[in-house]
Amino acid sequence: MHMFEWNPEYSVGIASIDSQHQALFRMAAELYTAMSSGQGKTALARILERLVQYTAAHFAHEERLMRLCDYPGFAEHKKEHEALTSQVMQFQADFLSGRTAMSVQLMQFLRSWLDSHIRGRDRLYVPAMAARAVA
After folding, report:
1. Range of the domain at 27
2. Alpha carbon of 20 to those of 62, 97, 132: distances in Å?
3. Does 105 map to a domain?
4. What are 14-37's pLDDT values in tens digits?
């Protein structure tokens, strides 16, 4: 199985969020493939930038839906989004400055984050969103 292969167990059952999660998996897979095939820093930086931008847009979408349904875990979930965003942006800054190379460790971090956040934290808001039919 590919490191970033979407499978149905990641579905939260909210179409807009599932499609964004699938896009995150595709971008992470693209970054992994580019790294594995030895593409240069410019190509990797471009894919990483798309991934960073898309993640920010996805988090904003999730947070908007959580606010719409008065999700009680909103503050905690938003904190997790902020922590991840700062980790990824720090990596991006280190990569662009040459302090860090694109590595399998980074890919494993992305993989485990996608896995644990989507299958854990993201599942928690589903009942509130479904009850209010916000998505």
Report:
1. 13-132
2. 10, 29, 20
3. yes
4. 999 999 999 999 999 999 999 999
